[in-house]
Specification:
This protein has ten helices and six strands. It is an alpha+beta fold.
Protein backbone atom coordinates (compact mmCIF):
# COMPACT_ATOMS: atom_id res chain seq x y z
CA UNK A 1 0.00 0.00 0.00
CA UNK A 2 1.41 3.39 -1.02
CA UNK A 3 2.15 5.73 1.89
CA UNK A 4 0.63 9.20 1.98
CA UNK A 5 2.91 12.17 1.44
CA UNK A 6 0.97 15.00 3.08
CA UNK A 7 3.04 17.99 4.18
CA UNK A 8 1.38 18.63 7.54
CA UNK A 9 3.98 21.09 8.80
CA UNK A 10 3.40 23.38 5.82
CA UNK A 11 0.13 24.50 7.41
CA UNK A 12 1.54 24.75 10.95
CA UNK A 13 1.59 28.60 11.15
CA UNK A 14 -2.03 28.79 9.99
CA UNK A 15 -3.35 26.17 12.43
CA UNK A 16 -1.29 27.45 15.36
CA UNK A 17 -2.79 30.90 14.76
CA UNK A 18 -6.32 29.50 14.55
CA UNK A 19 -5.82 27.41 17.70
CA UNK A 20 -4.40 30.37 19.62
CA UNK A 21 -7.42 32.49 18.66
CA UNK A 22 -9.87 29.73 19.66
CA UNK A 23 -8.15 29.26 23.04
CA UNK A 24 -8.23 33.05 23.69
CA UNK A 25 -11.92 33.18 22.70
CA UNK A 26 -12.62 30.17 24.97
CA UNK A 27 -10.95 31.97 27.89
CA UNK A 28 -13.03 35.07 27.16
CA UNK A 29 -16.30 33.10 27.01
CA UNK A 30 -15.49 31.22 30.23
CA UNK A 31 -14.69 34.51 31.99
CA UNK A 32 -17.72 36.33 30.56
CA UNK A 33 -20.46 33.70 30.78
CA UNK A 34 -19.07 31.33 33.39
CA UNK A 35 -20.15 27.72 33.76
CA UNK A 36 -23.61 26.32 34.33
CA UNK A 37 -22.60 24.24 37.34
CA UNK A 38 -24.74 21.25 38.17
CA UNK A 39 -25.82 20.20 41.64
CA UNK A 40 -22.50 18.36 42.11
CA UNK A 41 -20.58 21.66 42.16
CA UNK A 42 -23.11 24.37 43.04
CA UNK A 43 -25.08 22.51 45.72
CA UNK A 44 -28.83 22.05 45.77
CA UNK A 45 -31.35 19.35 44.93
CA UNK A 46 -31.94 17.76 41.53
CA UNK A 47 -35.04 15.73 40.72
CA UNK A 48 -35.60 13.72 37.55
CA UNK A 49 -39.29 13.00 36.99
CA UNK A 50 -41.13 11.13 34.24
CA UNK A 51 -44.77 10.85 33.18
CA UNK A 52 -46.55 8.25 31.12
CA UNK A 53 -48.90 10.93 29.72
CA UNK A 54 -48.25 14.32 28.16
CA UNK A 55 -47.35 17.00 30.71
CA UNK A 56 -46.54 20.64 29.96
CA UNK A 57 -43.44 22.07 31.66
CA UNK A 58 -45.43 25.20 32.62
CA UNK A 59 -47.70 23.06 34.80
CA UNK A 60 -44.61 21.83 36.67
CA UNK A 61 -43.41 25.42 37.15
CA UNK A 62 -46.85 26.42 38.45
CA UNK A 63 -46.84 23.49 40.86
CA UNK A 64 -43.37 24.40 42.20
CA UNK A 65 -44.54 28.00 42.76
CA UNK A 66 -47.46 26.76 44.84
CA UNK A 67 -45.00 24.76 46.95
CA UNK A 68 -43.18 28.01 47.82
CA UNK A 69 -40.04 26.95 45.94
CA UNK A 70 -38.41 30.27 45.02
CA UNK A 71 -35.41 29.30 42.90
CA UNK A 72 -35.98 26.48 40.45
CA UNK A 73 -35.13 25.43 36.93
CA UNK A 74 -37.16 22.99 34.81
CA UNK A 75 -35.52 21.33 31.81
CA UNK A 76 -37.36 18.92 29.52
CA UNK A 77 -35.82 16.02 27.61
CA UNK A 78 -36.51 16.24 23.86
CA UNK A 79 -39.45 14.13 22.73
CA UNK A 80 -40.05 12.60 26.16
CA UNK A 81 -42.37 13.31 29.06
CA UNK A 82 -39.33 13.58 31.31
CA UNK A 83 -38.00 16.61 33.19
CA UNK A 84 -34.94 17.62 35.19
CA UNK A 85 -35.76 19.98 38.06
CA UNK A 86 -33.13 21.91 40.04
CA UNK A 87 -34.00 23.67 43.28
CA UNK A 88 -32.19 25.01 46.33
CA UNK A 89 -31.15 22.52 48.99
CA UNK A 90 -34.01 21.15 51.09
CA UNK A 91 -33.83 19.21 54.33
CA UNK A 92 -35.12 15.62 54.35
CA UNK A 93 -38.53 16.57 55.75
CA UNK A 94 -39.23 19.27 53.14
CA UNK A 95 -37.89 17.11 50.32
CA UNK A 96 -40.15 14.20 51.31
CA UNK A 97 -43.13 16.55 51.48
CA UNK A 98 -42.32 17.92 48.00
CA UNK A 99 -42.03 14.46 46.43
CA UNK A 100 -45.27 13.33 48.11
CA UNK A 101 -47.09 16.41 46.80
CA UNK A 102 -45.63 15.77 43.34
CA UNK A 103 -46.94 12.22 43.41
CA UNK A 104 -50.38 13.38 44.57
CA UNK A 105 -50.66 16.23 42.04
CA UNK A 106 -49.60 14.24 38.98
CA UNK A 107 -50.79 10.72 39.89
CA UNK A 108 -53.25 10.78 36.97
CA UNK A 109 -50.35 11.49 34.57
CA UNK A 110 -48.44 8.35 35.51
CA UNK A 111 -45.86 10.16 37.65
CA UNK A 112 -42.54 8.41 38.39
CA UNK A 113 -39.71 9.91 40.46
CA UNK A 114 -36.64 8.53 38.68
CA UNK A 115 -33.88 10.21 40.66
CA UNK A 116 -33.28 12.58 43.58
CA UNK A 117 -29.80 14.00 44.27
CA UNK A 118 -28.93 16.46 47.02
CA UNK A 119 -25.58 18.14 47.63
CA UNK A 120 -24.86 20.82 50.22
CA UNK A 121 -23.19 24.11 49.12
CA UNK A 122 -20.05 23.37 51.15
CA UNK A 123 -19.67 19.87 49.67
CA UNK A 124 -20.29 21.26 46.18
CA UNK A 125 -17.53 23.84 46.64
CA UNK A 126 -15.17 21.14 47.89
CA UNK A 127 -15.94 18.90 44.91
CA UNK A 128 -15.27 21.81 42.52
CA UNK A 129 -11.90 22.47 44.16
CA UNK A 130 -10.90 18.80 44.03
CA UNK A 131 -12.01 18.56 40.39
CA UNK A 132 -9.72 21.44 39.38
CA UNK A 133 -6.86 19.90 41.35
CA UNK A 134 -7.44 16.58 39.56
CA UNK A 135 -7.05 18.32 36.18
CA UNK A 136 -3.92 20.16 37.35
CA UNK A 137 -2.22 17.08 38.79
CA UNK A 138 -3.04 14.97 35.73
CA UNK A 139 -1.32 17.53 33.47
CA UNK A 140 1.67 17.74 35.84
CA UNK A 141 2.12 13.96 35.98
CA UNK A 142 1.82 13.73 32.18
CA UNK A 143 4.54 16.41 31.83
CA UNK A 144 6.87 14.34 34.06
CA UNK A 145 5.95 11.04 32.35
CA UNK A 146 6.54 12.28 28.78
CA UNK A 147 9.78 13.99 29.85
CA UNK A 148 11.10 10.74 31.36
CA UNK A 149 9.91 8.44 28.57
CA UNK A 150 11.12 10.56 25.67
CA UNK A 151 13.04 13.78 26.25
CA UNK A 152 12.25 17.22 27.62
CA UNK A 153 11.70 18.52 24.06
CA UNK A 154 8.63 16.26 23.72
CA UNK A 155 6.95 17.06 27.06
CA UNK A 156 5.84 20.70 26.44
CA UNK A 157 4.12 19.75 23.17
CA UNK A 158 2.14 16.98 24.87
CA UNK A 159 1.02 19.11 27.83
CA UNK A 160 0.19 22.22 25.76
CA UNK A 161 -1.80 19.94 23.44
CA UNK A 162 -3.85 18.60 26.39
CA UNK A 163 -4.29 22.07 27.85
CA UNK A 164 -5.52 23.22 24.40
CA UNK A 165 -8.08 20.38 24.23
CA UNK A 166 -9.35 20.99 27.78
CA UNK A 167 -9.80 24.76 27.40
CA UNK A 168 -11.63 24.47 24.06
CA UNK A 169 -13.96 21.78 25.45
CA UNK A 170 -14.76 23.89 28.52
CA UNK A 171 -15.18 26.97 26.31
CA UNK A 172 -17.85 25.16 24.28
CA UNK A 173 -19.62 24.18 27.51
CA UNK A 174 -19.58 27.80 28.68
CA UNK A 175 -20.82 29.04 25.29
CA UNK A 176 -23.73 26.55 25.15
CA UNK A 177 -24.32 26.80 28.92
CA UNK A 178 -24.45 23.03 29.20
CA UNK A 179 -24.32 21.66 32.71
CA UNK A 180 -20.86 21.08 34.17
CA UNK A 181 -20.90 18.26 36.73
CA UNK A 182 -18.84 15.30 37.90
CA UNK A 183 -19.67 13.40 34.70
CA UNK A 184 -18.32 16.32 32.66
CA UNK A 185 -15.11 16.26 34.69
CA UNK A 186 -14.79 12.50 34.15
CA UNK A 187 -15.26 13.02 30.40
CA UNK A 188 -12.60 15.77 30.32
CA UNK A 189 -10.12 13.47 32.08
CA UNK A 190 -11.02 10.77 29.54
CA UNK A 191 -10.33 13.25 26.73
CA UNK A 192 -6.90 13.95 28.24
CA UNK A 193 -6.12 10.22 28.21
CA UNK A 194 -7.44 9.77 24.66
CA UNK A 195 -5.53 12.73 23.26
CA UNK A 196 -2.35 11.74 25.08
CA UNK A 197 -2.52 8.21 23.65
CA UNK A 198 -2.74 9.59 20.11
CA UNK A 199 0.16 11.97 20.79
CA UNK A 200 2.37 9.26 22.33
CA UNK A 201 1.88 7.03 19.25
CA UNK A 202 3.07 9.88 17.03
CA UNK A 203 6.03 10.63 19.32
CA UNK A 204 7.03 6.95 19.26
CA UNK A 205 7.05 6.97 15.46
CA UNK A 206 9.12 10.19 15.40
CA UNK A 207 11.69 8.58 17.68
CA UNK A 208 11.78 5.41 15.52
CA UNK A 209 12.19 7.42 12.33
CA UNK A 210 15.02 9.46 13.86
CA UNK A 211 17.02 6.23 14.04
CA UNK A 212 15.94 5.05 10.56
CA UNK A 213 16.50 8.31 8.64
CA UNK A 214 19.63 9.77 10.19
CA UNK A 215 20.44 11.77 7.05
CA UNK A 216 17.04 13.50 6.91
CA UNK A 217 16.10 16.87 8.40
CA UNK A 218 13.92 16.85 11.53
CA UNK A 219 10.87 18.52 9.84
CA UNK A 220 10.93 15.78 7.17
CA UNK A 221 10.98 13.10 9.90
CA UNK A 222 8.00 14.69 11.70
CA UNK A 223 6.03 14.79 8.44
CA UNK A 224 6.97 11.19 7.65
CA UNK A 225 5.88 10.09 11.12
CA UNK A 226 2.52 11.83 10.87
CA UNK A 227 1.89 10.16 7.51
CA UNK A 228 2.90 6.78 8.96
CA UNK A 229 0.32 6.96 11.76
CA UNK A 230 -2.38 8.76 9.73
CA UNK A 231 -4.44 5.63 8.91
CA UNK A 232 -4.25 4.47 12.53
CA UNK A 233 -5.37 7.93 13.76
CA UNK A 234 -8.33 8.06 11.35
CA UNK A 235 -9.51 4.52 12.14
CA UNK A 236 -9.22 5.06 15.91
CA UNK A 237 -11.14 8.34 15.75
CA UNK A 238 -13.87 6.86 13.53
CA UNK A 239 -14.46 3.75 15.65
CA UNK A 240 -14.46 5.75 18.89
CA UNK A 241 -16.71 8.34 17.25
CA UNK A 242 -19.25 5.66 16.28
CA UNK A 243 -19.48 4.49 19.89
CA UNK A 244 -19.90 8.07 21.13
CA UNK A 245 -22.50 8.75 18.39
CA UNK A 246 -24.55 5.75 19.56
CA UNK A 247 -24.36 6.84 23.21
CA UNK A 248 -25.44 10.39 22.37
CA UNK A 249 -28.46 9.52 20.22
CA UNK A 250 -29.73 6.39 21.98
CA UNK A 251 -28.97 7.21 25.61
CA UNK A 252 -30.09 10.11 27.75
CA UNK A 253 -29.31 11.86 31.01
CA UNK A 254 -25.71 11.77 32.25
CA UNK A 255 -24.67 9.24 29.56
CA UNK A 256 -25.71 11.65 26.83
CA UNK A 257 -23.80 14.53 28.48
CA UNK A 258 -20.76 12.27 28.80
CA UNK A 259 -20.98 11.35 25.10
CA UNK A 260 -21.35 15.02 24.10
CA UNK A 261 -18.11 15.88 25.92
CA UNK A 262 -16.26 12.91 24.44
CA UNK A 263 -17.45 13.85 20.94
CA UNK A 264 -15.84 17.28 21.27
CA UNK A 265 -12.70 15.68 22.69
CA UNK A 266 -12.30 13.20 19.82
CA UNK A 267 -12.43 15.94 17.19
CA UNK A 268 -10.25 18.43 19.07
CA UNK A 269 -7.84 15.75 20.35
CA UNK A 270 -7.23 14.24 16.91
CA UNK A 271 -6.63 17.68 15.42
CA UNK A 272 -4.26 18.79 18.21
CA UNK A 273 -2.11 15.66 18.12
CA UNK A 274 -1.36 16.40 14.44
CA UNK A 275 -1.23 20.20 14.29
CA UNK A 276 -0.26 21.20 17.85
CA UNK A 277 1.85 18.51 19.55
CA UNK A 278 4.07 17.51 16.60
CA UNK A 279 4.91 21.06 15.40
CA UNK A 280 5.81 21.98 18.99
CA UNK A 281 8.24 19.05 19.08
CA UNK A 282 9.89 20.46 15.97
CA UNK A 283 10.05 23.90 17.60
CA UNK A 284 11.64 22.48 20.79
CA UNK A 285 14.17 20.47 18.73
CA UNK A 286 15.14 23.64 16.88
CA UNK A 287 15.38 25.53 20.18
CA UNK A 288 17.57 22.74 21.62
Amino acid sequence: MKKTEINFLKLTPFFLTISSLIVIISFFIINKKGFNYGVDFSGGTELQVQFSKKVDDNSIRTFLSTQKIKNFNVQSFDGKNEFLIRIDSLNDKKLKKLTDNFRSKFSSKGFVMRRVDSVGPQIGSELKKKGLLALFYSLLIILIYVGLRFDYEYAPGAVICLFHDTIITLGIFALLQREVNLQTLAAVLTIIGYSLNDTIVTFDRIRENLALYRDKAFPWIVNRSLNDVLSRTILTSLTTGLAVFAMYFWADGVIRDFAFTLGIGIVVGTYSSVYIASPLVQFMARFK
